[in-house]
Every structure is written in C-alpha cells, then in structure tokens.
C-alpha cells in the first residue's frame, strides 16, 4: 500500500490539464491583444480625447492695458507682465502633507491654507498670490507640488507716483480702472483678452499650445493734456506751501488759454498710487474736480464782467465806498478799511466788498446771474472726469439783494478749482469760454463767446492793478512778465455758520496779462501758521509755478527793463515777435 501511494503521488499531470492551462494562457494573451487593438487602433481617438480632457485646458490670454502718457509722450501709467500663483484644490487635496511647505514659502498660515483648500476642493481653480514677484514665483514652482501653477497677468505701474495720482487714477488687481483717467477711459484702455487651448503637465505647467481660439486685442493708449514737467513743478510748489503754512489741504490747476487743456492739476495731501495700502477714499479723490468752495473775492472779476457788459459801468466810473461799510436788507457788508471814493478799476485793485456790492445792485439781477451761468458756474465743465461736482449757483439770489451782493464777492456760491479756472480762461481768451479737456488737443479750440472783447480786456487791466505794488496780490508777480489776477480770502463754512479763525486762501490769475497763455488757480485750505490772506499764502505759489512754466514753455517775456534790453538785445526781437508785447 505504501509503495502504491508513492507511485500515485509521483505521476505526471494528465494531458487534458496541460491543454486547459495552455488554453487559459492563450485566452489571456488574446484578451490583452484585443484590448491593445481596441485602445490603440479601433478607439484611439476616444482615448486621446479622454486624456486630453484631463490635461487640455482653455486659458485666457491677458490683454495689455494701454499706456497713459503726457502730451510729450512721457509715461504716466504702464503695464508689465507678472505671474499670479494659483492651485487646483481637487489635486492639491490629495497631497495635503505638502501644504505646509507651500504655506511657508508664501508666508501664510499652514492650517488656514489647508482649511481653505478643503473648503474649495470641489473647485478646479483658486488664487494663492496675485501679481507675485519673480523670486516668489520661482520658489513656489521649485516645490513641484502637483496642482500648483502660474498664470500670466499684467500689473499696472505709475512712474510719476503721487505727483499725478489724482488725475491718472488707478486700476484694481483685475486691471479695471477705479479712479481718474483709468476709470473714465477704462473701455478704451483695457482691450480684449484672447483665448487659447493648451496642454498642461501634472504640475499644471503649460508645455504645448494646441489652438488659438481668439486673438488678443491690446488696449489703446491715452495721450493726456498734462505736461509732466509742469505737473512736477506745480506739485512740488503746492506741497511746499501746504507744509509751510501747516494747511489741511490744497489744490492747483493750470489751464492752457488757447485750447482749454489741463496742463497741470495737483492736490495735497496726495498718495502713492503704487502702494495699494494708501488707496483710501479720503486720499484718492481729486479735490480740484470734486470739492467745492466759496471763491471769495476771486469772484469779483466775474461780477465786474457782468457790470461792464451791461453798459452801465466803465473802468473809470467813480464810486463812493465810504465809510467802508453798508447795510443791505439789514445785513452789514464791510471792507477791510475805508477806501473812500475810488474808480471801478480800484474796486478790483483794493478788493472792495462795498464797491462791488453797489456796482452789482445797479444792474439787473438777470444780467448778473446770466453772466455767472454763461461762465459755467453751477454746471460741470464737460471734461468727463469721474465724480466732477457742479458747484452751486442759487436762482433764489435773483430776488434777494443781500444774496446778490454776497455772490458778487464770492459768498453764497460754490465752485470747484477747475470751474473757477475755466471761468478765468474766458477773461484771458477775450471773452470766449473754452471746453476743458484732459486729452491733448492738436489744434486750438474755438469755444463760445460769453462777453464782449472789450469787457474781457478791461477786466484784465483791472486785475493787473491787483498784482501791482498797490494791490493785494503783489506776491504773485512774475519777473519780466505781466500778470493779471485776483486774491481771495474766505471764512470757512462749517456746521452752524462761518468760522472766524478758519480760512481758505485763494489766488486766480493769468500770464502774460496782455496776451495770456496760461491760467492758474491756487486754493489752500485752512493755513494755520499765522498768514491766511490769499495774497500771502496762495499768490506766491502762483508766482513760482508761472515763472517756471514760462521757461518750460518758452514764452517770451513781455515786461523787460531798459537795462535788460541793453544787456540782452535778443529779447527785443522776441518782444517784436510776441504779438506786439510791450516793454
């Protein structure tokens, strides 16, 4: 029995078993071949599509935002390519142990980042860092974490920084304009992004462009009317004045008389537009356009224009301002002192409230109010600047003599610095009101006549006396140039009435006075270092800026001494060519 059992155990496999194993092996091989045939030949396109669906993506091609440049082509706003870091939560959630590495490089809290990824794991896209520095982007990608990738974008830079911040404005992180020119011309500047189909590797990096779906259309440039040289000069001078007088704020506007272009517009305090932490509403608004104030005595030349245009008054008409005060409807109007009998021109030179009140009450109310309206008061300038204020021009003043008198010397009416500058352009342009523009104009603009030529020239002559040694604005004088202007000192309006010890200091003027090229308005809000009159605080700013502007724009002098003519004979030739300028 033992031997038989041993023989039975040692018997080879039966032939049918060998055949069965061979058949099974052959069937397995045939199944694999059939599967390979199906995947590689019969249904290859299907599997290619399935593979592509996992690696093929449609991505946006960012559009280059158009440049903003000054009238000479100097840049105010440019865009530069940057990378933003993003991740696919669906993929990264599978490698959560690597998130602390990522968080460390990004200076983020690891647990907070993990929670954020888990909360968004159903999504395929989540930003980690917008507009990252090249160094940071390189560090992140060197970690080689699946699902973390870079996206090409553009970042806006402003070479002039705070100097032109209020005019140029800024765009947000998505490259959409938020303030200023960036907002006003956003559709023109932003262009149209394109689209393309790409293949990404497991780390999210693009390694092949498959198809261009839509071409990118770059944004178009905007050429501003600003002159960057004059903008810097105005900014520097205004800032120094605000600091010197410990003022709350300040604004300055320079307009071209021929075209109505804004050559410079600055405000204090300003902000660094490249530092987004400074982008607060109280800092970013353009005070020259959005903030209104009572213009005070700078309103008197506009009132005088209405009086002269009426035909009732002339420059030489005498008017008695004694005893230095008068009562209108029970309200007292006062002068700084008793000027006695002076001519109409002296009313502007001495800045007599009594004199201008008597003059305006002698003409029809419609003529006074109509002149203010024609000069653009109570309406925006049409510049298209976002948030522009219209100011206030009350119709009720037509029926109230005290209100009429108050408006004549700048109370009860409100304007923006740009509105006031535009009204003065009408005086400078021989009675033609020009539309205001922030865009460079190749040719002079015609404008609309709002007063007689003789009226505008007569008022300019009166304003020249203001800047003479006898007037209130002698600190606005510009060496070798004639100047016409008007000072203004206004009690600041606060809740409950006018503050006795808080002032606005204003100067508005033009250079050269006989044939004006530029108009400038300076407003300093609440100077607190002792001096507060417009002739003391605002007029010197006008003088310094206009002196530099005349050199920058190569405007020939029209007031030169005989000694200078002997020393520099070329000046005589310049005067002859400067539209008949006088010595």
SS summary, helix count:
24
Sheet with the most strands, sense and barrel status? 5 strands, mixed
CATH superfamily of the largest domain: DD-peptidase/beta-lactamase superfamily
What is the architecture of the largest domain at the second tier of CATH?
3-Layer(aba) Sandwich
Rg from C-alpha positions?
Answer: 38 Å
Classification by helices and strands: alpha+beta
CATH hierarchy, class of the largest domain: Alpha Beta
Tally of DSSP β-strands: 21
Q: Roughly what percent helix?
A: 25-40%
Describe the structure.
This protein is α+β, with helices and mostly antiparallel strands and 583 residues long. It folds into two domains: 58-223, Alpha-Beta Complex (Penicillin-binding protein 2a (Domain 2)); 230-292 and 363-552, Beta-lactamase (3-Layer(aba) Sandwich), CATH 3.40.710. Helix content is 38%, strand content 22%. It contains 24 helices and 21 strands. The strands form seven sheets. Strands 2, 3, 4, 5 and 10 form a five-stranded mixed β-sheet that branches. Strands 12-11-21-20-19 form a five-stranded antiparallel β-sheet, sandwiched between helices. Strand 6 and strand 7 form a beta hairpin. Helix 2 crosses helix 3 (44-55), helix 11 (228-244) runs antiparallel to helix 22 (539-552) and helix 16 packs across helix 18. The longest helix is centred in the first third of the chain and has 28 residues, at 15-42. The protein is elongated and about 145 Å long.
């Amino acid at each position: 029995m033992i031997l038989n059992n041993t023989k039975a155990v040692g018997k080879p496999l039966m032939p049918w078993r060998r055949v069965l194993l061979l058949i099974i092996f052959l069937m397995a091989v045939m199944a694999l071949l059939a599967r390979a045939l199906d995947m590689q030949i019969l249904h290859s396109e299907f599997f290619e599509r399935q593979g592509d669906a996992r690696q093929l993506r449609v991505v946006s091609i960012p559009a280059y935002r158009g440049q903003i440049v000054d009238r000479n082509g100097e840049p105010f706003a440019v865009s530069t390519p940057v990378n933003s870091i993003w991740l696919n939560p669906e993929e990264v959630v599978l490698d959560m142990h690597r998130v602390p590495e990522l968080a460390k490089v990004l200076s983020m809290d690891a647990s907070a980042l993990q929670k954020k990824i888990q909360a968004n794991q159903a999504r395929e896209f989540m930003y980690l860092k917008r507009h990252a520095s090249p160094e940071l982007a390189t560090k992140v990608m060197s970690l080689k974490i699946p699902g973390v990738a870079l996206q090409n974008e553009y970042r806006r830079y402003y070479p002039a920084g705070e100097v032109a911040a209020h005019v140029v404005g800024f765009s947000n992180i998505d490259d959409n304009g938020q303030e200023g020119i960036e907002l006003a011309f956003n559709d023109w500047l932003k262009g149209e992004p394109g689209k393309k189909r790409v293949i990404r590797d497991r780390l999210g990096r693009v390694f092949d462009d498959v198809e261009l779906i839509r071409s990118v259309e770059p944004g178009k440039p905007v050429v501003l009317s600003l002159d960057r040289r004059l903008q810097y000069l105005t900014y520097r001078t205004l800032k120094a004045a605000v600091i010197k007088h410990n003022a709350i704020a300040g604004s300055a506007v320079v307009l071209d008389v021929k075209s109505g272009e804004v050559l410079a517009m600055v405000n204090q305090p300003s902000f660094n537009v490249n530092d987004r932490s400074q982008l607060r509403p109280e800092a970013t608004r353009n005070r020259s356009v959005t903030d209104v104030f009572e213009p005070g005595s700078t309103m008197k030349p506009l009132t005088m224009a209405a009086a002269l245009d009426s035909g009732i008054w002339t420059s030489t008409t005498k008017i008695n301002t004694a005893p230095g005060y008068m009562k209108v409807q029970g309200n007292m109007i006062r002068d700084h002192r008793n000027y006695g009998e002076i001519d109409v021109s002296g009313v502007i030179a001495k800045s007599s409230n009594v004199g201008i009140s008597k003059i305006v009450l002698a003409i029809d109310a419609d003529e006074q109010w109509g002149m203010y309206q024609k000069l653009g008061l109570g309406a925006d300038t049409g510049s298209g600047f976002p948030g522009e204020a219209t100011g206030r021009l009350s119709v009720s003043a037509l029926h109230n003599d005290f209100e009429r008198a108050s408006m004549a010397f700048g109370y009860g009416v409100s304007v923006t610095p740009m509105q006031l500058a535009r009204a003065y352009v009408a005086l400078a342009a021989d009675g033609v009101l020009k539309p205001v523009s922030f865009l460079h104009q190749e040719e002079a603009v015609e404008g609309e006549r709002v007063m007689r030529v003789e009226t505008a020239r007569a008022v300019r002559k009166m304003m020249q006396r203001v800047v003479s040694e006898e007037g209130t604005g002698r600190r606005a004088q510009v060496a070798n140039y004639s100047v016409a202007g008007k000072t203004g000192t206004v009690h600041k309006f606060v809740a409950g009435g006018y503050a006795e010890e808080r002032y606005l200091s204003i100067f508005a003027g033009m250079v050269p006075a006989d044939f004006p090229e530029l108009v400038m308005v300076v407003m300093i809000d609440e100077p607190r270092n002792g001096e507060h009159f417009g002739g003391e605080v605002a007029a010197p700013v006008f003088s310094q800026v206009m002196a530099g502007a005349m050199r920058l724009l190569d405007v020939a002098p029209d007031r030169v001494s005989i000694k200078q003519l002997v020393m520099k004979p070329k000046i005589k030739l310049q005067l002859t060519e400067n539209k008949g300028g006088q010595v």
